[in-house]
Amino acid sequence: MIIGVPKEIKPQENRVALQPGGALQLIKHGHTVLVEKGAGLGSGFTDDLYADAGAEVLSDVDSLWQRAEMIMKVKEPIAVEYPRMREGQVIFTYFHFAADEALTKAVVDSKCIAIAYETVEKADGSLPLLIPMSEVAGRMATQEGAVFLEKPKGGRGMLLGGIPGVQPAKVLILGGGIVGVNAAKIAAGMGADTTIMDINMPRLRYLDDVMPENIHTFFSTEANIRSLLPSVDLIIGAVLKPGAKAPNLITRDMLKEMRPGTVLVDVAIDQGGCFETSKPTTHENPTYVVDDVLHYCVANMPGAVPYTSTLGLTNVTLPYAVALANKGWKQAIADDPELKMGLNIANGTIVYADVANAFDMDWEPIESVL
Question: Which residues contact 308 (CB under 8 A, 6 or more apart)?
Answer without folding.
Answer: 136, 302
